[in-house]
Design brief:
It contains eleven helices and 13 strands. The strands form four sheets. A seven-stranded parallel β-sheet has the order 3-2-1-4-5-6-11, sandwiched between helices. Helix 1 runs parallel beside helix 2, helix 7 runs parallel beside helix 9 and helix 9 crosses helix 11. The longest helix is centred in the N-terminal third of the chain and has 22 residues. It binds nicotinamide-adenine-dinucleotide (NAD) and uridine-5'-diphosphate.
């Protein structure tokens, strides 16, 4: 099966390519390298003994996409490409809507021209906003987003829902990721944020490796077990496997398919600091700071639907997530 992977050089896309190659699927990567390094391709090859096709280009470039669909016999598309920094999206909303929303529209238009109607979209738990209750199920309300990044994901979801309503031959799968963390256990691939990390795990890893002095913990007065925010951290390889399960179980079934990809377990910021400290043998300096605007107290997934309909369940523990992140970070202190 040939699967076009937009954003396949990025963090989640690259791990998904490795898992796909190992499962006998053929990824064809397109990426404009705005947030990735070409070295990723060498690492994929090193791990799998196979070098996937990589075409440098932008998902908003219709002529480029047309040429890709003309050249390769694509069965399905996984659409990872997009911008993902919440804070930056507040400062640059037009760039976020252009890349995330317009990029998805150009992609689906080119897919339709090429007669490719199977799409898996990288959505996010952020579409649920501040949940009324946890665990969050796929039926819970969406749309009360708190920043342009989240709104762009919600808007793409709505566009794709309307598309499949109008053209029922499409198979559209919306995967709502919770908090992807971790790295390939080889230590060869991992998350390589440019500049100061926005997310908790890469920040902790950079403190442990000595690139940053201390972690700022955003809020210790939430209604949670220790006052810090609680999230559903999921190992990036489990997430990658969730995409393969989605392709295999529903990728050929016309209709709309929506799944949470999480573990169903919540961990606090302090849980993650302690787990990382154990994994790395380093103490993680931190200070308690005010809440970060737009953050919610707690969020974790109901995983029943994915388990029932995809036969998929996250397998890797927080201990593995932190150990694998540490192996990646300590082997590659400056990233790729
Ligand atoms: P990433 O930035 O590592 O990967 C995205 C890739 O897309 C990068 O390689 C980048 O160069 C490429 N890209 C961006 N815009 C492009 C464009 N217009 N044309 C072609 N390539 C383009 O991010 P990631 O963490 O791997 O996330 C992948 C997807 O999952 C994103 O859509 C993101 O919003 C979504 N997601 C991520 C998280 C997370 O915490 N990492 C959580 C929920 C959802
Ligand atoms: N967080 C923190 N310090 C940081 C980054 C994040 O305390 O430098 C907290 C944040 O407030 C939240 C959790 O860690 O409770 C996860 O944040 P992240 O940005 O990784 O993911 P989010 O759930 O916000 O998408």
């Amino acid at each position: 099966m040939n699967v076009l992977i937009t954003g396949g050089m990025g963090y989640i896309g690259s791990h998904t390519c490795v898992e796909m190659l190992e499962a006998g699927l053929t990824p064809i990567i397109i990426d404009n390298l705005c947030n990735a390094r070409s070295e990723v391709l060498n690492r994929i090859e090193h791990l799998t003994q196979q070098r996937p096709v990589f075409l440098e280009g932008d998902v908003r470039d219709e002529a480029f996409l047309d040429s890709v669909f003309a050249q390769y016999d694509i069965d399905s598309v996984i659409h990872f490409a997009g911008l993902k920094a919440v804070g930056e999206s507040v400062r640059k909303p037009l760039e976020y809507y252009d890349n995330n929303v317009n990029g998805s529209l150009v992609l689906t238009r080119c897919m339709r021209k090429a007669g490719v109607t199977s799409l898996v979209f990288s959505s996010s738990a952020t579409v649920y906003g501040d949940p009324q209750s946890v665990p969050i199920t796929e039926q819970d309300p969406t749309g009360a987003t708190t920043n342009p990044y989240g709104t762009s994901k919600y808007m793409v979801e709505r566009c794709l829902m309307d598309l499949v309503h109008a053209e029922p031959e499409w198979s559209i799968t919306l995967l709502r990721y919770f908090n992807p963390v971790g790295a390939h256990p080889s230590g060869l691939m991992g998350e390589d944020p440019q500049g100061t990390p926005n997310n908790l795990m890469p920040f902790i890893a950079q403190v442990a490796v000595g690139r940053r002095e201390k972690l700022s913990i955003f809020g210790d007065d939430y209604q949670t077990k220790d006052g810090t925010g609680v999230r559903d951290y999921i190992h990036v390889l489990d997430l990658a496997d969730g995409h393969i399960a989605a392709l295999q179980q529903v990728g050929a079934k016309p209709g709309l398919h929506i799944f949470n990809l999480g573990t169903g377990q919540g961990s606090s910021v302090l849980d993650m600091v302690n787990a990382f400290s154990q994994a790395s043998g380093k103490s993680i300096a931190y200070e308690l700071c005010p809440r970060r605007p737009g953050d919610i107290a707690k969020c974790w997934a109901s995983t029943d639907k994915a388990q029932r309909e995809l036969g998929w369940k996250a397998k890797r523990s927080v201990t593995e997530m932190t150990a694998d992140t540490w192996r990646w970070q300590s082997n590659n202190p400056q990233g790729y």
